[in-house]
Amino acid sequence: MLIADDVGEPVQTIALHSLEAQTSCALLILEWSIESAMSDEDVASGIAYRPHEDGSLVTLWGEVDAALRTEASEAMTFLVGRHGPVVIDVERVSFIDSAGIAFVLQVYMIGREAGQPVTLRNPTREFEDMLAIIGMDGEIEITRGVTAA
Fold first, then answer.
1. pLDDT tens figures, 98-134
2. pTM (2 decimals)?
């Protein structure tokens, strides 16, 4: 996991081998955050999270990039320690960079370690192409045709 300072500059890379270490790191990242999260889907871009059915729903929309690191950190903190499947709705993502892909992969890896299924809902062809480029096509389950509730 790459740790960044408050302006997004990388300062340290660490390997997190346990859920406990990931939880501690996620809480530390949240404490470092100096901006408040914006989970109002009326803004141009964002990350929202909430309990959903027997698990969790994470919704990404707009331009998902490093500018959303605070929202990503808070979503990770919300997810760590929760039980049940995780759905990541990416239907309204218009752009995603390496920081956004890294967030999706972190959610997937934490879910896999905890034995929780992680599903990507309604990704665009471009989103799927990004997963293929990094060798993750076929790794994360994809569902189509279901809209966010």
1. 999 999 999 999 999 999 999 999 999 999 999 999 9
2. 0.70
Residue 18 lies in a domain: no
Per-residue model confidence as pLDDT tens digits over 2-37: 444 444 554 444 455 555 555 544 444 444 332 333
Q: Are the CB atoms for 125 and 91 separated by under 8 Å?
A: no
Total domain count for the chain?
Answer: 1
Domain of 91, CATH number, reads 3.30.750.24
67 in a domain, yes or no?
yes
In a domain, 30, yes or no: no
Give the residue from 144, 26, 36, 54 showing the smallest Cα distance to 90.
Answer: 144
End-to-end CA distance of the chain: 32
User: Domain of 74?
Assistant: 37-143
